[in-house]
């Protein structure tokens, strides 16, 4: 969807003339597009933060224990994502309520524009949050895998179900109490405790975002037809613009050739008219003009 929208925008940017769409309330639409831009900025920033979170997850997983700075950076990014996601969600919900309130009163160009913009941003928001959720789940599984490997080294093999039960307590002391008697090394115990803390922090973040994610995901699901129609229309528009530009170029070439052919034909006719005409003052003058036009040395 994004690629098609960018393609359409790039195509339109090369057009010499703007296409205007009449709307019922220009001032209101200016305010609406201001809201849309704010939401888009928030979603783009969330996407950037998710990329940074993934990098920190890799750093944490590559070391036996994570340092405090890495944990602080991760917490700051997580809080920023939560704050911006809530802000974007609230604005999308406000627009949704306004659309529902206005829908029965009018069906106009600005209403279609508002619905389309809202649908596209809602889908984009869900895509970004899905990416974030997938990164969190992947990190949790890898952290859990590290705990399992440490337990296996000590001879305490655990199934996924058993490990999940150990993790559900949420208390690091209670968690390690169940394995401290296994005779594992201090380093192994520290790593297990560190991974457990990572998982507990992660669980809290996932739970905080769960309701918001489901809320917007359900909204996008209900807008499926709208978003699909937008993608189809954008695709058609890009194709039509490409065809129109090609036809325009052909027309310009034909028109340019026509400009050259018509004067040349006229001059040739003049040439033969003068060549075959009796010699006279007027004809002699016209004779000289034709010579200069054709660039001839003699007639």
TrEMBL record:
Q: Which InterPro entries match?
A: SNARE, Syntaxin, Syntaxin/epimorphin_CS, Syntaxin_N, T_SNARE_dom
- Alphabetic keyword roster: Coiled coil, Membrane, Transmembrane, Transmembrane helix, Transport
Task: Report how it sits in the membrane.
Answer: Single-pass type IV membrane protein
Coiled coil, from the record: 67-112
Specify where it is mainly localized. membrane
A Pfam entry, by short name: SNARE
Q: Does the keyword Transcription regulation apply?
A: no
Q: Which N-terminal stretch is annotated as signal sequence? A: none
Record has Flavoprotein as a keyword: no
User: A single Gene Ontology molecular function, please?
Assistant: SNARE binding
Q: Name one GO biological process term.
A: intracellular protein transport
What are the GO cellular component annotations? endomembrane system; plasma membrane; plasma membrane bounded cell projection; postsynapse; SNARE complex
T-SNARE coiled-coil homology domain segment(s):
189-251
PROSITE patterns per UniProt: SYNTAXIN, T_SNARE
Q: Any idea where this protein resides?
A: Membrane
Give the family from UniProt: Belongs to the syntaxin family.
UniProt protein name = Syntaxin-3
Q: Which organism is it from?
A: Electrophorus electricus (Electric eel)
What is this organism's lineage?
A: Eukaryota, Metazoa, Chordata, Craniata, Vertebrata
Q: Which gene encodes it?
A: stx3b
């Amino acid at each position: 969807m994004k690629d098609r929208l960018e393609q359409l925008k790039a195509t339109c940017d090369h057009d010499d003339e703007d296409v205007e769409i009449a709307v019922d309330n220009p001032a209101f639409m200016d305010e609406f597009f201001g809201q849309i831009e704010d939401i888009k900025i928030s979603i783009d920033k969330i996407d950037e933060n998710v990329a940074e979170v993934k990098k920190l997850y890799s750093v944490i997983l590559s070391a036996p224990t994570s340092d405090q700075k890495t944990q602080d950076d991760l917490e700051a990014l997580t809080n920023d994502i939560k704050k911006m996601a809530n802000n974007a969600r609230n604005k999308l919900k406000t627009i949704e309520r306004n659309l529902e309130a206005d829908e029965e009163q009018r069906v106009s160009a600005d209403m279609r524009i508002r619905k389309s913009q809202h649908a596209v941003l809602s889908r984009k928001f869900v895509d970004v949050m899905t990416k974030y959720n997938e990164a969190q789940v992947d990190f949790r599984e890898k952290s859990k895998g590290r705990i399992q490997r440490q337990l296996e080294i000590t001879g305490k093999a655990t199934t996924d179900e058993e490990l999940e039960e150990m993790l559900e307590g949420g208390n690091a002391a209670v968690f390690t109490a169940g394995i401290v008697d296994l005779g594992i090394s201090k380093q192994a115990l520290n790593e297990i405790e560190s991974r457990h803390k990572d998982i507990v922090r992660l669980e809290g973040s996932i739970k905080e975002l769960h309701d918001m994610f489901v809320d917007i995901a359900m909204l996008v699901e209900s807008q499926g037809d709208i978003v699909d129609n937008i993608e189809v229309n954008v695709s058609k528009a890009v194709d039509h613009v490409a065809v129109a530009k090609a036809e325009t170029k052909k027309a310009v070439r034909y028109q340019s050739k026509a400009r050259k052919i018509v004067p040349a034909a006229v001059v040739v006719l003049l040439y033969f008219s003068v060549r075959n005409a009796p010699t006279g003052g007027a004809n002699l003058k016209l004779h000289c003009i034709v010579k200069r036009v054709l660039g001839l040395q003699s007639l």
